[in-house]
Amino acid sequence: xxxxxxxxxxxxxxxxxxxxxxxxxxxxxxxxxxxxxxxxxxxxxxxxxxxxxxxxxxxxxxxxxxxxxxxxxxxxxxxxxxxxxxxxxxxxxxxxx
Length: 97
Prior knowledge:
Elements: H1 8-19, H2 27-51, H3 58-75, H4 81-92
Helix pairs in contact: 3-4
């Protein structure tokens, strides 16, 4: 947001004050500012969500376990590449093997 301040609230206030110096600012500038603020909030939310470690649901854990099992069978020579592709394809389509 700009300026050298000690916290986010001061930074926001300074940025807001720098862009709206009149008592009655241009309404279109205010709308553009608020749209930009909304976009920044959404980017922040996405960053927070992407860095959080959500608890995996049971079906997700089972799917990961099955995927590891199929990879292990391929590496161990228990299945062919064709069978590997077939099983992984079914797994990705949520079809029970």
